[in-house]
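Entry 14. Structure prediction run on the chain below.
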Amino acid sequence: MVIDSAALLRERGIQVTAQRLAVLRAVAVQPHVTADAVAEVVRTEIGAISLQSVYDALALLVSEGLIRRIQPSGSAALFEDRVGDNHHHLICRDCGRVVDVDCTAGAAPCLTPAEDSGYEIDEAEVAYWGRCPDCLGQSRAASSGDHPKRARSSQRRTPPSQSPTQQSTDGKSVPRSNNRRARRSSRG
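Output returned:
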């Protein structure tokens, strides 16, 4: 099903701009994408755009419910266009890959806390942590002695920088770990 992004923005009363349309397309093409990766995709599509403009567009689109922001522990915020359903995420501890998984319990919130402290709960965000099939296979191969070079790569690591259009073997995107502020502050 092809969705007219401009019509979608107009329906929500959002001014249609080339930047907002490009941000929507970037998130649609690569789910679980960082703001930095969105900026790279948008720059290749429309030319110059500031990172702040990308953040502003993402924030607006999240607030209007057109995209979803998730932030797994230890990761930059990730954005996806799968909204309006009750799904969760599988996250690889080794490479950082994030994939969607449907909720088996049903409608949101799919979990009920033992004590709600007076809150009206409307959503539960679930992240399943483990190792993806690729990292698990590399780890098993390294432990069997078949590939000595892979033994080092099976240790927990920061995901390598990737092209904003790189896809994993299952057709899902692999998030980039690209936190410029952290790198700047670590330099002193």
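Residues 12 and 95 are 37 Å apart (CA to CA).
Filed with the rest of this week's runs.
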